[in-house]
Amino acid sequence: MTIYSHIKKSVAEGNRLLAVLIDPDKIELNKVEDVIAKINQSIVTHIFVGGSEVGEGVTETLVKAIKKHTTLPLLLFPGDVSQITDEADGILFLSLISGRNPDYLIGKHVEAVSKLTKTQLEILPTGYVLIENGKQTAVERVSNTKPLARNNIQHIVNTAKAGQLLGQQLIYLEAGSGATHPIEPEIISAVKKQLQVPLIVGGGIRSKTQLNAAYKAGADIVVIGTAFENNQLFFEQIKL
Ligand code: 1GP
Questions:
Q1: From start to end of the chain, where are the E strands?
Q2: How confident is the model at residue 239 (pLDDT cuts 50, 70, 90)?
Q3: Of 96, 81, 189, which is closest to residue 139 (Cα–Cα)?
Q4: Probe ligand 1: pick from 177, 210, 229, 234, max atoms within 8 Å of CB?
Q5: Cβ(148)–Cβ(163) under 8 Å?
Q6: How many whole angstroms separate alpha carbon 31 and alpha carbon 206?
Q7: What CATH number should be reported for the domain holding residue 200?
Q8: Burial classification of residue 212, based on how many CB atoms lie within 10 Å of its CB (0-12 exposed, 13-18 middle, 19 or more buried)
Q9: Residue 113: partners with Cβ closer than 8 Å, 6 or more residues away
Q10: Per-residue pLDDT band at 55 (split at 50, 70, 90)
Q11: Domain count for the chain
Q12: Residue 159 CA to ligand 1 centre (angstroms)
């Protein structure tokens, strides 16, 4: 079964999915085995690997190391073409549809094709929607785009819906790594009501309450990065 079919099946069965985001810049290779052991024992269902600014080759080395220790599906969440590696299982092929920078809407994708065609990666076209959360995020800085205003819910819904109508198979509502506030449940539920494709939500989720609020509002996959980076017991603690 493909990763996408498995996601669709889980959503249809009402199962909640949880992705941990590992930023290649924020993990030491000699810690990978330990970190992945913790992830394997947790409720995490997917591993995302990527960052806004990662040096050439660093992602591939990390992905190889992770794959030695887990059978969880590993998806690239690349900030740049240089992060593409055949060592992963798949890739979130992100188009930053909240922004108006052609490079991040289609340019980088064209650049990526020659690399992608040489890989076996499962490609998951994903509409990436950045929503403001009170401070500038790395995505905003690197992509040189403005996030969507969080008080204009209709515009957020229309953006996500446009992504789906363009054929994107996933929509990712992003507050940005380390966001002060996660995406509000009102935004998640408004988008979810209009969407037929699975919904990913991430950015700034640091507690079990915030995680459950995201699921309750309609998130199908929640992404946790910073909370686990800062506290390796995070997944154990939210099980309690
Ligand atoms: C960032 O949505 C992810 O792209 C995760 O964000 O690091 O704030 O958990 P955090």
A1: 17-22, 46-49, 74-76, 90-96, 122-130, 170-174, 199-202, 221-224
A2: confident
A3: 96
A4: 177
A5: no
A6: 22
A7: 3.20.20.390
A8: middle
A9: none
A10: confident
A11: 1
A12: 20
